[in-house]
Amino acid sequence: MIMGRLYETILIAKPDFDQEGFEKLHTRMLKTIGDEGGLELKLVDWGRRRLAYPIDGHRKGNYFYFGYIASPACLKEIHRQLRLSQEIIRFQSITLSSSKPLGAFDIEKEREKVVGLTPDPQDEEEFGRRDRGDRGGRGDRGDRGDRGDRGDRGDRGDRGDRGGRRRDEGEQKAQTEVKA
Amino acid sequence: MKPEMRRRRSFGRRKVCPFCADKSLYIDYKTPSMLKRFITERGRIVPRRISGVCAQHQRALQVSVKRARMVALMPYSTTGID
Fold first, then answer.
1. Of A4, A39, A73, A156, which is the most buried if we count CB atoms within 10 A?
2. Cβ(A112)–Cβ(A41) under 8 Å?
């Protein structure tokens, strides 16, 4: 009997992620889950959100919420696939139930437990306040114009002893010794 | 403890845990709008001696905030210079 748990995973895809690539990843995940008798319960697209901090240079990300029943081995395999994916920049899985035989899950009851609460768009404003997004190029800055005469540099003062004379003397002495 | 010490500490209203007071409030890492009431503007978790949250709920809160941070729904820190 394969034991399973109820899991939820949050995926963050790149802001310019490839929809087709994601579909492929999703079907592969479903296959991994299905092969072991698991079941996908919910997939919610939270859409594009501003990240609270940049991840791998990305300031925005596409969030997906994913609720499913699977075995721990299956979860491990899903994680492996997610790590390999170019589209996913971050993921996090949470265990929602204790371990039960896969057949013993009351699907409808579990479905209620996976609540993909969509975060309020307001939060995004709160935490992403300082991110003003792409401001675009600054364009041609134009001619800087004549900077004018820089004026007299003034007296540079006493530059002090430059030293080094002693070394010259030493060299001369060495040369005379060779000659002798 | 001396009587005057006790008197000095006992001013003000006893704080009540907001999650115990309102059972409908659910601590979840997917709702940063609710969690943000319990972090400072720098992004740190407010100690429960300040917020008045009870130990059980503070623990749940702490886990939720950390999970929310992990998926960039909440900041680890906010410096002001970005």
1. A4
2. no
Query: Taking CB atoms and an 8 Å limit, are B74 and A52 in contact across chains?
Result: yes
pLDDT in tens, B1-38: 555 554 455 556 777 888 888 888 888 888 888 888 89
Q: Choose among A90, A94, A120: nearest Cβ to B67.
A: A94
Please, what is the average pLDDT of chain B?
82
pLDDT given for residue A130 in this prediction = 43
CB contact under 8 Å between A123 and B28, yes or no, is no
- Is the domain spanning B15-70 CATH 3.20.20.70? The answer is no
Low-confidence ranges of chain A (pLDDT < 50): 128-133
Instruction: Spell out the domains of chain A, with CATH numbers in brackets.
Output: 3-114 (3.30.70.60)
* Rounded distance between C-alpha atoms, residue B29 and residue A93, angstroms: 12
Nearest CA in chain A to B77: A53
B67 touches chain A (CB under 8 A): yes
List alpha helices for chain A, DSSP H.
19-35, 72-84, 107-113, 121-127, 165-179
